[in-house]
Structure formats: structure tokens, C-alpha cells
Amino acid sequence: MIQKLLVSLGKATPTRQLLEQHVPLTAHRTQAFDDAIQSSSLFHRVEAEASKVHEHAISSTTTTTTTTTTTPPSTWWYDLSKPPQCAIEETVAALFQQFVSHDGSSSSSSNGNEVTGAEWWVQHRRANTPQHFHFDTDMGRHSLGSSSTSTNNDNSEKSILRCPSLSSVLYLTESGGPTVVLGQRPTMSNWSGNLALLPEEATECDIMFPRRNRYMLFRGDLLHGVLPSYELEMRTTLLVNWWCGKKPKDPACSVPTIELMESLTKAKKTKKTMKTMKTTKTMKTMKTMKTKTRIKTSPNAPKTIALETTDLQTGGKMLGTDSLACSKLTFDIDLSLEDDNVKIGGYVTTSAYFPIKLLDREDVKAIEEEKEAVHNYSDVVHRIVGMGRLRLVENQFP
To answer: Does a structural domain hold residue 254?
Structure first.
């Protein structure tokens, strides 16, 4: 009745569906594990291949001219029913078996929650460079033209916002700011008929700091990003989205090209050649060093990272049991789609509060003095709550 009234008042516009229903694989919003890859050899191979993937992406971008009619793939697809062809695909298969398949993905495909494949890519950027807040989506469905043969009830060839069932991050380095997952999802607005955020303003979030061989999973329809760090080192991650149902459309999420696979093969051969050239003495020295720092290979090695809840007004165990000094950050989120070059919707603005203790400050010396404390902060997943109540207080006393 309310919807009909809004339509009659011109406040809501009947429209087709702009958002595909999300298929969750877990009841957890966020999970994280240390020592995720149990084989040190496999992890080192992934590190080498990640570098090659980054080089391949740069090469593909720089060789693309303005006259090129195709867009270079930005992400890659691994069909879980096929054997892995490289260390990265082997790792994706291992992550699936260890952390994903036991969490609901083995359910009947008739329920729509069977994982059909994984979308993966590598991010290699300066640690002081942030990653804007965004949703992981089926990029190929963002700008489809409406098919002349489709009916009003057929959205198969129309742009739509579609999110993966699970998003995840495998950290290959320890540099950089934390991954932040806000408790906000996309929704259809009954008022405007366009895409919107639910809730409109963030009320809580999960914060995870990088650590080598750490694996973080979170619901694929949650708003997330990376905060900047004061460090100048490179921050490298292998990102994996787990999809149920149809494979996302091209040009993203493509099957690895022959050129890419050849590049990854060269990375493997180069490592073997360097290993052969090492003297026996050097090999013994390296073996001793690896023994001290190698990744555990025990089947019980992956360790679940504890979730530490901190209220911005009452504090928590790790950050102190008192109200916390916070910084309010505001973000512009792109929720637009495109049909036949016609833009639907646009940007929406949202904000969130973060404890200053968990943010990188400009005073590097002060950070170094608190290095031990900062390191301890990375031992847990920080669930920050109470943003809504803090926002009410702020509005009362502008």
C-alpha cells in the first residue's frame, strides 16, 4: 500500500531489478586465518607468480592503443572442476578445500549455493596508496545494453549489480594499511528506484591488518577498501572471489591467456635455474635460513584469528576500556549501472568512524615508538561497533 502511494506521488519509480539476490556461503561476516598455505614451497611459488602477473598486467595495459577494440582482462577465472595449471591456481584450489568447501559450498546446486569457480587477480601497490571503498561485482554485467529480443521479465541481457558469494584476500607481504570491511550492502531503494546502501551510514566495520600468509574471507556483498599506511614498501595481495551460478561476463574474469601462462612457466623455470646455480655451501646456508622462517606444513597449521569487538564509546580489551578518539572518514561510492549508454543511478556518500589508534598517523616517529603495540593490533580482527551512537552524539553537539 505504501509503495503504491509513493508511486502515485511520483516518489518511487517502478523499475526492473537492478540488484541480483546475493547467495551467501557462510553465516560469518568476516573470518581470517594465519598460516593459510601450509606448503612453504607452494607459497614461494605463488610469490614468484604474483610478480609475473603484475608485470603481465602492466605490459597488457601499455601495449593497448586507443584503436584497440578489446579491453585487457583485469581478473582471471579458475574452473574448480579442472586441474590447476600454475601455482596460483593450485593455491586457489587449496584455499577452496581448506576454507570454503566446508562452509556450505558443497550444498545442492538447486539451492544456488554451489561454488562454480574462482575469480582471482593480484594487487601490487605502494603501502601508502589506499584502495577506494567499493563492492566486488560482475563487471561484465555493469554496462550491458538491453537486448531487443528480451522481454520485460527477462533481465539476462541487462545491466545488473551482481556480487560474489565470498570475497577473500591472501596477504603476500606484511606492509600496508588494513583491509576494512564496512557493514553495508547494496539494496534497491523503494524511494528512488535506484541502488542505495543499507544502512545509509556505516554503523560498524571489521579491520584486518596484513600479515604474510594470512587469509581473510568476508561476505561478497559488503562494502570494503584499504586504508593507507605510512610505509613506502610494496603491498602485495592475491585476491580471490568465489562465485556461485554463472561465470561472470568478460572482459574481466577471463580464462588465463597463453601469454600469461607462459610468463608463469618462465617464473618457475627461472627459479629452478637459480637453484641449480647455487653452490652446496650456499644451499646449506639458505636451507638453514628457511628452516628458521619457513611456513609450517602441519595439517593443523592454519590458525583462526580471534575477533575482538571494540565499542567506540566504551572501548574494548585491546584498545582500552574508555571512549576512543576517532577520525571520521567520508567516501563516495559508485552505484551506477549503464544500459545502452544510458547511466542509471550514480554516486552515494557514506561515512564511518575509525579509532585513531588503528589509523596510520603522520608522525612516523610516534608510530615507531608504538611499533610493538601496532604489531599486537594485527593479531586480531577488530570489529568496531557503536558508530551509529557516536553519530547521534555528533549531531546533537555540532
So the answer is: yes
pTM here is 0.84
12 falls within a domain: no
pLDDT tens per residue, range 67-78 = 444 556 689 999
Find the domain containing 214 and state its range: 17-305
Residue 138 has pLDDT above 80, yes or no: yes
In a domain? residue 211: yes
Task: Indicate the number of domains in the chain.
Answer: 1
Q: Is the pLDDT of residue 174 over 80?
A: yes
pLDDT at 190 > cutoff 90: no
Residue 387 lies in a domain: no
Give the CATH number of the domain where residue 158 resides: 2.60.120
Q: What is the 3-state secondary structure (H, E, C) of the chain?
A: CHHHHHHHCCCCCCCCCCECCCCCCCCCCEEEEECCCCCHHHHHHHHHHHHHHHHHHHHHHHCCCCCCCCCCCCCEEEECCCCCCCHHHHHHHHHHHHHHHHHCCCCCHHHCCCEEEEEEEEEEEECCCCEEEECCCCHHHCCCCCCCCCCCCCCCCCCCECCCCEEEEEECCCCCCCEEEECCEEEECCCCCCEEEECCCCCCEEEECCCCCEEEEEECCCCEEECCCCCCCEEEEEEEEEEECCCCCCCCCECCCHHHHHHHHHHHHHHHHHHHHCCHHHHHHHHHHHHHHCCCCCCCCCEECCEEEEECCCEECCCECCCCCEEEEEEEEECCEEECCEEECCEEEEEEEEEHHHCCCCCHHHHHHCHHHHHHHCCCEEEEECHHHHHHHHHHCC
